[in-house]
Each structure stands twice: as structure tokens, then as C-alpha cells.
Amino acid sequence: MTSYSLFITCPRGLEAPLSEELAALDCQDIQATDGGVACKGDMAQVYRINLHSRTASRVLLRLTKGSYRNEADIYKLAKNINWFNWFTLEQTFKVKVEGKRANVKSLDFVGLKIKDALCDSFREIYDARPSVEKFRPDVRVHAFIDERNVQIFIDTSGEALFKRGYRQDTGEAPLRENLAAGLLLLAGYDGSQPFQDPFCGSGTIAIEAALIAIGRAPGLMRRFGFEKLQNFDKAEWVKIRQQAKVQIRAAAPAIAGSDNDRYMIRAAQANAAAAEVGEFIRFEVKDAQDARPNGEHGIMISNPPYGVRLAEVQALQALYPQLGSWLKQHYTGWLIGMFTGDRDMPKFMRLSPKRKIPLYNGNLDCRLFLMDMVKGSNR
Description:
The protein has 10 helices and 14 strands. It is an alpha/beta fold.
């Protein structure tokens, strides 16, 4: 099989766990950069990354790379791609351009140039061109431009990979699934430890924990962009999916989620059932401080509410010392992970984190604070 240059995007801060996932899938030349990981792999690996990666956002396959002086050079590069090897005249497409210190008038204009090059390629052969579709294109083309070089990719994922295909009701601001999975992996959760989330909201972190615990590929419930490409090998894909189904285990250690909002717990139960992990998670309506360990040496990962307005911040900071005492009293021997936009949280909880991992929740600069609960750790 041909080996391709791939770029796998992820939420910023998850490059390390993504690199480990790619290594486990036997990808070659793995190189992490800000917001993603470059590697080499064949089409079967492209299918596997899309299906199995818990932290990836998109799997992009590079069609060309070159230097440019102006927009005409970018047009030429795009015109030399054999677009028909990838999709047909009848399929719709969309071009997205991103740049860092790009020496061009506007990224939109570059997008237009790439679109023209693609359409002109088709026109020369078929005397017709494929149509642009903004919302649900069959094929997505991504270009990245820096000071000197441009890279053009075809997106093999389609919808972003955090969309696992099960979600019913998200509540107001759910954590993206690949970020939730990343928090678990960064904390060393491997599915063998008891797990708890006492601020579980619509259940995202607990559901990702259950998927890890039973070894279920996160992409089993959805379709992918590569299924619409010309070189799609259906037999190979059926085989890869089948192998993934065989790997699913029938049991998991204790996994629990709780929240004081009855409506959120109902949403979490519906989401877990839709993700086919409902039987592995115990969801309950309760105040965080009423939660108790569901086993020994477990892992708690939570995204507690954090305030935006000053009054909210003050109210929460009054609550943090109580949370700190509750953890010290009941969770000795556990690893506690708090994911928050509030840098001062550990200080107010009177706990000292062993690791502070910078991560982004969308554009929000956050931290994952990892704290070992040691007996007598009351400061």
C-alpha cells in the first residue's frame, strides 16, 4: 500500500497522548507540533486512526507541499494535483484555508485560488466542474500556509472526530469528547482503575472512561469522509471494523458519575445508553460533596463549574476549601484531576498539584491539575 504524509489535528495540549495512539497504530515518522501530529501511514492506517483515535480531531492526508511567492504559485500547486484520483465531478467539495504568518493578501483569496485550480482541472477533462457545498460537502480540502510553504490536504474524517455519533443532548457547554478522552489518558487512566466524576454534567468524561475500559473504538457508530473517496477500499474497511468489534470487552471496573442537576443526569443516562455503555456507568443525582469512592486507588477526573462573572468566581472560591476538605477526608489513595479555567483552584482547595497540564477547551486557556490524595495531606 502507498504510504502518505498525514497530519492529525487535536485539541492543543493533547499532542503527547495522540502521538502515543499513533505509535500504537504502527504509524511512522511521528512528529508532534502545536495542535497536531504529523506521521506517515497507508490507507488502512488512515481508516484505523479515524476509527480508534480517542484524541484526534481530524485525519488529513497531504496531496501536495511546496513553496510559494504569491497566490499564482499556490494556484499552480493546486492545479497539479490529480483531483480525479480522489473524487468525482458529481461530488460536492469545500476548501478551508488556515495560515500562520502567511505572506498573502487574504486567506479567503487563497481559498478561492485553490477552488479555481480544482475546478479548472475538472473542466479541462470533463468540460464541467464540481459544485461547492458549504455545510455538508462530500469532500473537504484543507490548506495550511506559513511564511514560505503551502500544504494542501484532503480530509479523511468528514465530520470532526469528537462527534462520536451517539450524542443526544449536550447540556449547555459540554466538553468535547476527544478532550474528555485526553484528560483521562493524561491522568494515566487505562480502564483498570475505578473511576468517578462528581460534576458529570451530560456524562462526557464518564462515557469516554467506559469506552476506554471496555476497549471500544470511539468511531464505531459513525461514518467517515474516506468512505466517499474514489480509492475507498470497502473490503479492507469492513475487516478493520470487524476486528474492532471483536476487541470489545464485556465488563468494566466501577465507573460513576454524579451531578446535582436531575435534568443533566437524565441527559447523561440517555447519552450513555446511546453510546452503548449505559450498563457500565452508575449515574446519580447528588451534591459533589456527598459522593464517596467506588473503589480503592481510583481516578477522579472532573470539569467542575468555574465562574465567568465576578460574583460566580467569588461564590465558587468560597466552595473550593470545602471541596479540598472533602477530597482529603474521603479520597485517600486516589488520583484527582480537576480540569478548570481557574488557575487559583488548587490554592483555594489548599491542595498542591503534582502536575499542571496546560490545555485549551476551544479557545479557553485551561489547566488539568493532577493531585495525589495522600493520607494526612491536610495542610
